[in-house]
Write a structure and sequence with these properties.
Layout: E1 7-10, H1 14-25, E2 30-34, E3 47-49, H2 53-59, E4 69-77, E5 83-94, H3 97-110, E6 114-117, E7 122-126, E8 129-133, E9 138-141, E10 143-146, H4 153-157, E11 169-178, E12 184-190, E13 193-199, E14 205-212, H5 213-216, H6 222-228, H7 234-241, E15 243-245, E16 251-256, E17 264-265, E18 268-270, H8 285-305, H9 311-339, H10 343-355, H11 357-367
Parallel strand pairs: 1-2, 1-10, 2-6, 4-12, 10-18
Antiparallel strand pairs: 3-5, 4-5, 7-8, 8-9, 11-14, 11-15, 11-16, 12-13, 13-14, 17-18
Length: about 375
């Protein structure tokens, strides 16, 4: 196995796998380290904007083979039952992380990427070379991509600012069978959180919600919480009551932080959620993760083909590109999240957008990008 690749990627989610495919396709030696097996379920909204389709097609990743749902409509509802709907400007598709991550994993293997199932215990940089420590071996590389997700032991190793702060959020996700429009992604507001509902492949309904932990901990279990809090929204109550759980139990992740993160830390280029997390109410984190992989991969290829390009310039260009493409979207996500935590303001806003659907389309555009250009 390659122990000194051109690029080491820590984390095998959407961003990490996409970068592995891109870089290996262009001839670089890539090693990806992922602690979990494939396929696996992940806490995720599982809706992707069509903005990334041109890029996936360029990579040879034909997601149509997974039979995703075609999503064209968005609905937002409030606790008191108000609802606003809009046509999605670009549309999107619903696909489970169970299917998509495994699909990307198989593509990376086909591209001769080396993938190690292990946990990284330390990362250091000396004499312009990174050393990555695993329990049973040590790897080295000139470039590292950090793709280890929302929260990881590596964040602690790197002593990132957000990791030392307690977060009030946790997320819950499960798949269900039931009746739901195939072309709809819905976001239902409830006291202390938001719940996304949409179809993925095989007629499965994905329900994923973000909850305020202080409210959640008042109840003895997830089912009790859902019935006493989420069911206050009649639309959400109807979804749950007309659906049957397909998992043994919902999966959860806690301590989700929406604090600002740096796209480059300790000279590691961070991609996907590792670089910045957009609120689920904006519904576009998966597309952003894939797009960030493209940006980082293209700059790394420039770095290896241009001997005059320094590490400093690489890091500066990536930071600029990240902020250009995602800075405003993440900022708008934070603003919307703050607005929608106020019940009265939310009801007024939904009343306005229900009367003037064009406003909702404009809000959606603020958190979605244009179709990715392929050079």
């Amino acid at each position: 196995m390659e122990t000194s690749p051109d690029v080491l990627i820590i984390g095998g989610g959407l961003a990490g796998l996409t970068s592995a495919i891109h870089l290996s396709q262009k001839g670089l030696k890539v090693v990806l380290i992922e602690k979990s097996d494939y396929p696996r379920h992940k806490v995720c909204g599982e809706y992707i904007s069509n903005e990334i389709l041109p890029y996936l097609q360029w990579l040879g990743v034909e997601v149509s083979k997974l039979n995703p749902t075609n999503i064209t409509k968005f609905e937002f509802t409030t606790i008191n039952g108000k609802a606003a709907t809009a046509k999605l400007p670009l549309g999107g598709f619903g696909i489970s992380r169970y299917a998509l991550d495994n699909f990307l994993y198989q593509k990376a293997l086909t591209n001769n990427c080396s993938i190690i199932k292990e946990t990284v215990t330390n990362v250091s940089l000396s004499n312009d070379i990174f050393t990555v420590t695993l329990p049973d071996q040590i790897l080295s590389a000139k470039i590292i991509l950090g793709a280890f997700g929302k929260r990881s032991n590596i964040d602690q190793v790197l002593d990132r600012d957000f990791i030392n702060k307690k977060s009030p959020w946790l997320a819950v996700k499960a798949h269900y069978s039931g009746t739901l429009d195939n072309d709809l992604v819905a976001l239902h507001n409830f006291n202390g959180g938001y719940c996304g509902v949409s179809k993925v492949e095989n007629n499965i309904i994905n329900i994923c919600y973000l909850a305020d932990y202080s409210t959640f901990k008042q109840y003895k279990n997830i089912e009790d919480y859902q019935q006493n809090v989420l069911y206050k929204n009649k639309h959400l109550k109807s979804v749950f009551e007309n659906s049957s759980l397909l998992f043994d139990k919902p999966i959860t992740i806690s301590q989700i932080s929406f604090d600002k993160k740096q796209p480059v830390e300790n000279h590691i280029l961070m991609i996907g959620d590792t670089a910045g997390l957009i609120h689920p109410l904006c519904g576009n984190g998966m597309a952003m993760a894939i797009h960030s992989a493209k940006i980082a991969s293209e700059l790394i290829l420039d770095y290896y083909s241009n001997k005059e390009m320094s590490r400093e310039l690489l890091e500066r260009k990536y930071t600029e590109e990240w902020n250009t493409h995602f800075g405003k979207r993440i900022y708008m996500g934070r603003i919307l999240a703050q607005i929608l935590t106020h019940k009265t303001i939310t009801n007024i806003l939904v009343g306005i957008v229900a009367a003037f659907p064009g406003i909702l389309r404009r809000i959606i555009k603020q958190t979605h990008g244009k179709p990715i250009a392929i050079n």
